Amino acid sequence: MRTDLVKERMFTVFFMVAVTFVAITLVGLVDIVTAESVERNRGLFLRQAVADAFGIPQHESVQALLDWFDDNVTIVRDDNDAPDHFWITNEKGEKSLVLVYRGTGLWGGITAFVGFEADGQTIRGVNFQDHVETPGLGARIDEPWFRRQFVGKSGPFQDLLSEPSDKGSLSEDERAFHQVTGATITSASVRTIMNQSLKRAETLVGQR
Amino acid sequence: MAAGKTKKQFLLSAGRDNPVFAQILGICSTLAVTNVVQNTVVMCLGVIFTLACSNVTVSLLRKWIPGSIRMMVETLIIAAYVIIVDVVIQATLPGVSRQLGPYVGLIITNCIIMCRAEAYALNNPPFPSLIDGIASGIGYSYVLLIIAVFREITGSATFWGYSIPWFSDWWTNWSIMVMAPGAFFALAILIWIIKTYVVPEDPGGK
Is residue A61 a part of any domain in this protein? Predict the structure, then answer.
C-alpha cells in the first residue's frame, strides 16, 4: 500500500516537472524565433517617436525612417544605457534637441519625446510613448490636435483651456494649451512634463 | 450523426450556454478591452486560440493528469499558450500590442478558459474539446464585438479608429462609454435583450 502511495506521489511530481519542462521549452522556442522582430519593433518605435518629436510625423517607408535616423541623429544615453536625448541635424545644418522625459500620468508613467528648435526653447514637436492613460480619455493626448498645439510655443505653460470644439483652431497663447475633456489629471501631468522638459532643454542646450 | 452532434454542441456553447451572457464569465476582459473594436478583435483571436489549444492539450492529457494537481497543470498549459500569443502579437502587431498592454497576459486569468478546461476538456476526447473551445471562444467574441462596436461608435464616434463620414461631425462623444462603467451598461442591456427576446430562460428551471 505504502509503495503505491509513494509511486503516486512520485508520478505527480514527475508529471508536473515534465509539463513545466515542455511548456517552458515551447515558450522559449517561440521567444527565440520572435526575439529579432520584437527588438526591431522596439527600435522602430523609438526612431518613429524621435522623428515625430522633431516634426516629421511620417516617412515614406520604414527604410527611409532608418536612413534618416542613421544619417542625422546622435543618441546620448544615460547611466542605465537608456536613450536620454538626441541631437538631430536640422535642415539648416544646426543641431536640434529631442529629449526623453519620463513623467507620471494618472495610472502610471508617461514617456514624452519633446523636440526643440536649435534655440533650445521653441517646441518643434511632442510624442507620448509608453503611457497607460485611460483609453478614450487620458490616452487622447496621443491625438494629433493635442500634440500639435505645443508646436512653436516656448512656455512655460500655466493655463489649461477647455477642449476646443474645432480642433483646427488652437490657442495662440504661449502659456496655455487646450486640455482633454474628462482627463484633467492627465492634462495637468502633461503640463508638468512640458515645463520640466523646457527646463531640461535649456540646461542641455546651455551645456552643449 | 457525428456532424449533427458537433453542430449541436457548437451552437450550444456559442448560443444558449454562451460564456458571457449565460455563464457570466470573462466579464473582466469584456469591460477592459471593448472600448475600441480593433483591440477587441485581437483580444478575441487570442482567446479563441488559447481556448482551442488549451482544451485540446488538457483533453489529450486528461487520462494522466493527477487529480490533486489538475488545476496547476491547466493553469500552466493556459499560461504557456497565452505567453505565445503575447509574444507573437508583440512581434507582428506592435501597435496593437502597445494598446492592449497587460490585457493579453491577463487572458491567463480569463475564467472562461479555466472553466472550459475544468468542466469540459478534462472529461471529453480531444475533438469535441476543440469544438467546445472554438465555440466558446466565438461565443465570447461576438458578445465582445457587439459591445465594442457600440462603445466605440458612441464613445469615440469612430469605427476601427476611423471617423464615420456623416456621423462623427455632429455626434457628441459619450465619455462614459469609453470607461469601464459604460461597458457595464452596454453588457447589462445586451444581456437583458438577449435573455428577453433571443434565449428566454426556462421559467420552470432545468
Answer: no
DSSP character string of B103-150: GTGGGGG-HHHHHHHHHTGGGS-HHHHHHHHHHHHHHHHHHHHHHHHH
Across residues B156-183, what is the average pLDDT? 83
**What would the pLDDT profile of B105-122 be if each residue is shown by its tens digit?**
888 888 889 989 999 999
DSSP B168: T
Q: Is residue A102 part of a domain?
A: yes
Those residues whose C-beta lies under 8 Å from the C-beta of residue B29, and which sit 6 or more positions away, are B43, B47, B103, B106, B107, B110, B144
Q: Where are the beta strands (DSSP E) in A49-117?
A: 73-77, 83-89, 95-104, 109-116
Cβ separation A27–B178 shorter than 8 A: no
Report yes or no on B5 lying in a domain: no
Distance, in Å, from the CA atom of A94 to the CA atom of A91, rounded to the nearest integer, reads 7
Please report whether residue B48 resides in a domain.
yes
Residue A100's DSSP bridge partners are: A113
Q: Say if A153 falls within a structural domain.
A: yes
ipTM: 0.79
Number of domains in chain B: 1
Given a cut of 50, the residues of chain A with pLDDT beneath it are none
Answer whether B83 touches A (CB < 8 Å).
Answer: yes
d(CA B62, CA B46): 23
Residues of A in contact with B84 (CB under 8 A): 26-27, 30
Q: How far apart are CA B181 and CA B32, in angstroms?
A: 10
Minimal C-alpha gap between B4 and chain A (Å): 35
pLDDT band of residue B205 (cuts 50, 70, 90) is: low
Domain count, chain A: 1
| Separation of alpha carbons A111 and A24, rounded Å | 33
Give a yes or no: residue A124 inside a domain.
yes
Q: What's the pLDDT score for residue B39?
A: 84
Shortest distance, CA B170 to any CA of chain A (angstroms): 11
By residue range, what is the domain housing residue B66? 20-198
Grid coordinates representing A11 are: 508520478
